[in-house]
Predict the structure.
Amino acid sequence: MSLWDKLKDAITTDDAEAADEARREAEQAQAEADKAKVEAQARADEARRKADEAAEKAGLPSATEEEKSQADEARQQAEAEAKAAQEAQAEADRKAEEKAQKAIDKANARREKRQEQREEAREERQEARQEARQDAREERQDARHEAASEEVYTVKSGDTLSEIGQRYGVDWREIARVNNIEDPNLIFPGQKFRIPKK
């Protein structure tokens, strides 16, 4: 599995900016690891080639002890170079994995922060809705209480708003306002008016 595939598994695509940044970091880490592997492999190949040349010289019937010794030394050096190349490849992979993990952690931290911010915003909206509902309930209760505390008067023949207001000690204009009376001079027997409290 490539580093980018690991990143894709670790982060979600809903945070495109973090995903892109993590992808770039992973690609850079992978490129550095690949370059280190190629260089290490080239050194190992060169050491093997030298060892093969020395071994070929040492295998000739006319080879001297010194050439045979050089061949052994070249073979040992080639083995050491191959081992160093393997270690360099492993180190490059480790560094690439480390960078990829940092990118994953960074992307996850961003995602978690955004999730926390969304959760906080959701909670704030919920609190605001609850406050609005509570305010509306209180207003309805106040209106019901006010309505319950008002008296209702049924108009009789010959009544006027000013007389009704005097009877209850309330300004006739307030009675007209509460009952949406457009023409205070035009009221009829049987009409019911709410009488506001003083």
The CA atoms of residues 78 and 112 lie 50 Å apart.
